[in-house]
Amino acid sequence: MTDLSQQTNLQPEITLKDEERQPCEVWTRVMGYHRPMASFNVGKKGEFHERQYFCESRVSLAA
C-alpha cells in the first residue's frame, strides 16, 4: 500500500504568460442544439446573461 501523504509532485508547475493564453469559448443549448455564444446577436447575449439557474432537490414525501 502506498502512503499518499508522502507523495511529491514530480511535474513542475505550469505558468502561462498573458500573451500565451487564449479566450475560453462558451457554448450553450439553444432550441435543441448547441451554439457558441460568440455567434449570438446583442439581444440573445442579453437573454443568456438574464437566465436564472436552479438546483432541484428531493422532496420528502410525508405520509
Features:
single chain; 63 residues; alpha+beta; two-stranded antiparallel ribbon; 1 helix; 2 strands; flat
What does this structure look like?
- There is one protein chain.
- This protein has 63 residues and is α+β, with helices and mostly antiparallel strands.
- It has one helix at 42-50, and strands at residues 27-30, 33-36.
- A two-stranded antiparallel ribbon has the order 1-2.
- A hairpin with a 2-residue loop joins β1 and β2 (33-36).
- The mean pLDDT is 83.
Strand content: 5-15%
General form: flat
The count of helical stretches stands at 1
Fraction in helix: 10-25%
The secondary-structure class comes to alpha+beta
Element string (H = helix, E = strand): EEH
- What strand line-up does the widest sheet have? 1-2
Major beta-sheet overview: 2 strands, antiparallel
N- to C-terminal separation?
A: 49 Å
The total of beta strands comes to 2
Output mean pLDDT.
83
| Poorly predicted runs | none
